[in-house]
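Q: Could you fold this chain for me?
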Amino acid sequence: MNIPTETDVLVVGAGPVGMALTASLADKGVPVVLIDKQAAGDNTSRAAVVHARTLEVLTELDVTEKMIARGIIVAQATVRERDRVLLHVGFDDLPTDYPYTLLIPQDSTEQILVERLEATGTRVTRPCELTSLVQDPDGVTATTAAGEVIRARYVVGADGMHSLVREQAGIAFEGDTYAQSFVLADAVLGGDVPDAEIRLYFSPEGVTVIAPLPGGRHRIVATVDDAPPQPDHVHVQHLLSTRGPQRNPATVEKIVWSSRFRVHHRLAERYRAGRIFLAGDAAHVHSPAGGQGMNTGLQDGLNLAAKLAAVIRDGADDGVLDAYETERRPVAENVVAFTDKMTRVATVGSAPLRGVRNTVLRALDWIPAVHQKMAMNLSELGIDPQRMAKLKPM
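A: Sure. Below is the predicted structure, expressed as structure tokens.
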């Protein structure tokens, strides 16, 4: 592998966050190297929700319209208990050029970002596994498993929840793990299933999300006590039969892909340690309720790229980089808290408490300001104080 021995920025991890950050830096004329320990990119659909704020920031890379063309536009979400709708959340009144949520499989998003990255003349160096980082006042020395040494002014860890960059930087990853596991499946469904809506089903056994995907498929995300390694037709059908619609039950016609995973709610103690930075899942992980994980990470990446370019290319003071944590960590803190609260409310086990929860949600459903605030939080447009100030009072 012909890896440059010196660069201004070394990015570790070639998921969507790492690729977007790298493409943005390359566009700005900043020398950057992107490495990933995997031999190839992920070809599964994992993160499938792209919210309005993310579509806005991705216009910088000129990929937003390409993503929209390959996804499904969804303007509404509902919270339900079986056939009963408890709360509506509409995105069509959001103060943005993208008043909706986009459903697009992660492998499609990654393919678009790979093409965009390559258009800058930059490629992912893989497989290339980082083994150590050593900082000094002038830069960072990175060593790979193959013995290559890369000298960089700055390093960005976009290498996921088990980030070696975070570990090498000595940054704590504070939080906990949910007792339940999560089922993730893409399936062809029949019966009462949404074509232009995201449905969040509450039940004592767990929360279940059903959302449309391109190609006539649907995404199912569900919390279970102990998921099988690869959830099959029978398992997914049981989830839909016991938690989903009853009058016209959803039926599984075909499982296209499935997986299981454990979910943590954790936040990095800090986003910067000298010349080392964290972005995406390396900095924050949380429940998939709300579909905000990849969105928050992509916004991290482009925010950090702008600040690194200001320092490296334009000669701004290094203190500019401190604003990255100041601006982005509170956003992740809010997302972690919001999704944790949503997950716990969804899985209330006591029948009396479920009754109270449902009554409260149905009462809130009559208040337009509640719909607005929920939509602003989910879309992450709520991080903009000016836009929030224009909302109707509660």
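A (continued): The domain at 6-48+105-172+269-343 is CATH 3.50.50.60 (FAD/NAD(P)-binding domain).
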